[in-house]
Amino acid sequence: MTERHGSSLEIAGLRKSFDDKIVLDGVNLGVRPGESLVIIGGSGAGKSVLLKCILGLIQPDSGTILIDGVDMTDQRSDRTDAVRERIGMLFQGGALFDSMPVWRNITFALTQGRARDSKKMHALAIEMLEKVGLEPRVADLRPAEISGGMQKRVALARAIAANPDLIFFDEPTTGLDPIRANTINQLIRGLVTDLGCTAVTITHDMASAHHIADQVAMLHEGRIVWAGPVDQLDKSGNELVDRFIHGRTD
Amino acid sequence: MTEGFTRLFSPLGAGTLGLFAAIGRTAVFAFRALIAAVTPPYYPARLMQQLITIGYFSLPVVGLTALFTGAALAQQIYVGGERFNAASTVPAVTVIAIVRELAPVLGGLMVAGRVSSAMAAELGTMRVTEQIDALQTLRTDPFQFLVAPRLLAAVIVLPLLTLVANAIGVMGGYLLAVYRLGFNAASYLDTTRAYLELDDIVSSLVKAAVFGFVLALMGCYHGYHTKGGAAGVGTATTNAVVSAFLLILLANLVITVLVFG
Ligand SMILES: Nc1ncnc2c1ncn2[C@@H]1O[C@H](COP(=O)(O)OP(=O)(O)O)[C@@H](O)[C@H]1O
Ligand SMILES: [Mg+2]
């Protein structure tokens, strides 16, 4: 792998409602190149919807999303396509293609589902599996034949196989034991520190947040209620943040 | 008074509007699918896979349907015809009914039951487990990767299945007529050949291609737009089959009136 240049991300005034339900109510957020942002927030706060808006899977009602200065809410063009080519995404549920073996899943960004360079792709898949702490034999299994935690790690391998510059992780450690979770934390941190990727991670796991993040932002009722460097997280002085990180219910 | 009328008919109006909206959405979906089918990249391996799933694996079902229907038809025409001293019309009426109507329509319905439901369930599961979203983030158009191969395969394969069904349906009638009703084998076949026209076969195949398009479109449309988890997949599957059945029967009526009316 060669040294890469992480992308920048700027979100301003992003709004999205489903019918009458307001999910995103003017989100403002920025990530600098080569930086790791962790987004925290309660279930149903709209974190996944935010990621899907950025990825163009959900059409926002208003607002702008700039990646390396390109407005991703514009009509599809060669410029937005070129940006999307450099994005990787780990879905909350893994979203592996269950009609294909693991190795075809992992190399999908490179093959687009075609049977080209199969030998090389198989070898690459095994290399990626090793990075996420899985054995080579997993490569030839179907997603339905492996555990949920393994599926999550295969999905992670798929997200990073094409060497993206900007990677989104939706709850990467949910459903993993602490040791495996730590492998993933180190992997994500390594992508940022060693390879210069920009990472945006959603998590509920505060240990993971501390490990991965340069910056942290908290999403609550459709807005960013606090954002700052990770070392300020425990002394944010924000009631909502304190409640979230200490799991208080009052 | 007027208010009462409004209240009485407003659900009807809403239903009509909803129907038009659904027709519009389906047309847009079909248009997108057709564009996707003719623009690269193409996925020949996936088309092949669908040809086998839809075509080859439907052969037993379609073949048995045609066999049983052809035989039952011959029996009915015989019983009905006898009353007018017209029992000799069995071969002619059987072949016309099979080729013009029963083979394409029953074949289409059987394949719809098998295939529209499977397509809706597969695409619906892919939708609710975010696999379709994942495809898009991996820069693959789901219309090109999922929908186009299914539509193309169904349009190609239904006429072939119908050819087979035509032959087996006529054979069903022949077997029953010869072995049960005492028809002469050679003259049964001669009469069949004499009454079978090229136009009948062409209309049979055209119908089949249209039904193939309709049943794949309904499977893909309902699967692609699935919402709401496992229950949503169930609803999508049911809707796909019911709408495919109705549209096949409607399309059959329209084509029949246009061609033979
Ligand atoms: N496609 C959709 N249609 C309607 N409502 C949705 C859709 N996607 C998400 N929502 C709603 O938006 C809210 C936020 O969802 P989500 O972003 O998944 O939450 P989380 O922060 O836990 O990831 C939820 O209330 C959810 O029901
Ligand atoms: Mg979520």
Automatic annotation (TrEMBL), chain A:
Specify the ABC transporter domain's residue ranges.
9-246
An example molecular function term from Gene Ontology annotations: ATP binding
Q: Which UniProt keywords apply?
A: ATP-binding, Nucleotide-binding, Transport
> Which PROSITE patterns does this one have?
ABC_TRANSPORTER_1, ABC_TRANSPORTER_2
One Pfam match, by short name? ABC_tran
User: Does Calcium count among this protein's keywords?
Assistant: no
Q: Which SUPFAM superfamilies match?
A: P-loop containing nucleoside triphosphate hydrolases
- SMART domains named among the record's database cross-references: AAA
Q: Which domain of life does the protein's organism represent? A: Bacteria
Would you tell me the protein name for this molecule? Answer: ABC transporter ATP-binding protein
Q: Which organism is it from?
A: Pacificimonas flava
UniProtKB/TrEMBL annotation, chain B:
Q: How does this protein sit in the membrane?
A: Multi-pass membrane protein
Any one annotated GO CC term: ATP-binding cassette (ABC) transporter complex
Q: What is its main location?
A: membrane
Q: Which domain of life is it from?
A: Bacteria
User: TM spans, by residue?
Assistant: 12-35, 56-78, 90-112, 151-181, 201-224, 236-260
Keyword Membrane listed: yes
For this protein, the record's InterPro entries field holds:
ABC_MlaE_roteobac, Permease_MalE
Q: Which GO terms describe its molecular function?
A: phospholipid transporter activity
Protein location: Cell inner membrane; Membrane
Record's keyword terms, sorted: Cell inner membrane, Cell membrane, Membrane, Transmembrane, Transmembrane helix, Transport
What's one Pfam family the UniProt record gives for this protein? MlaE
Give the similarity note: Belongs to the MlaE permease family.
UniProt xrefs under PANTHER family: ABC TRANSPORTER PERMEASE PROTEIN-RELATED (PTHR30188), PROTEIN TRIGALACTOSYLDIACYLGLYCEROL 1, CHLOROPLASTIC (PTHR30188:SF4)
**Cross-referenced NCBIfam families:** MlaE family lipid ABC transporter permease subunit
This chain's function reads: Could be part of an ABC transporter complex.
Put simply, this protein is called ABC transporter permease
Q: Which organism is it from?
A: Pacificimonas flava
